[in-house]
Amino acid sequence: MRTPHTIRQQIAIYERRIRELECDLLCANTLLNEDPLTGLLNRRGFQQACTLLSAGASGHGIAISCAIIDLDNFKTINDRHGHAAGDRALCHFAEVLRMNLRPIDNAARVGGDEFALIFPDATGADTMDILARLHAALAELPLITDTGPHPLHFSAGVTQLRQAESVHEQLSRADAILLHAKRSGKCKVLLSP
């Protein structure tokens, strides 16, 4: 027969194990949804955030804007300074990005030097203003390499969510606008009509 003391010990052991499992689950979730280099969301985490935002905004008339950003001349950084410098550039960009976004905005590294941003309760014009501030912040806070300061620049495509459009469709439009920005001379931010 178990004594009350033995039962309390077993309960304490189970409670500790539950806390350990919750911690393991949180760590696994972080690994699944976060880019390990920059600490931003990864593609999977960003898609989940978009799905939640889209569901919450649907039918409520909330303005949602997004941007797809590509660092300009990133290959040059890797070629001239090595991949470690390229990694530092990505981390530097992510940090300057965090400093210039609102707490409700979501940012992700979705591939090499490509980033996706989603801005709830923001028009395309609002997003253009945020990205202009980001360009200015990057000019003031250049990446420091062995050869001195190296300012980072980016091109972006910006879209505003249309009636009956999913956030994923909106992101596809932003990606197409980004291609136009890159082809028209880089360091450009274009807003979809």
Note the run of SSEs as H and E. HHEHHEEHEEEHE
User: What Rg, in angstroms, do the CA atoms define?
Assistant: 21 Å
Question: Helical percent range?
Answer: 40-55%
CATH architecture of the largest domain: 2-Layer Sandwich
Count of β-strands: 7
Largest sheet: 5 strands, mixed
Layout of helices and strands:
Blueprint: H1 4-33, H2 43-57, E1 64-71, H3 74-81, H4 83-100, E2 106-111, E3 114-120, H5 124-140, E4 143-145, E5 148-150, E6 154-160, H6 167-183, E7 189-191
Structure description:
The chain is an alpha+beta fold and 193 residues long. The chain folds into 2 domains: 1-33; 38-191, Reverse transcriptase/Diguanylate cyclase domain (Alpha-Beta Plaits). It has helices at 4-33, 43-57, 74-81, 83-100, 124-140, 167-183; strands at 64-71, 106-111, 114-120, 143-145, 148-150, 154-160, 189-191. Strand 4 and strand 5 form a beta hairpin. Helix 3 (74-81) crosses helix 4 and helix 4 packs across helix 5 (124-140). The longest helix is centred in the first third of the chain and has 30 residues, at 4-33. The chain is flat, with a radius of gyration of 21 Å.
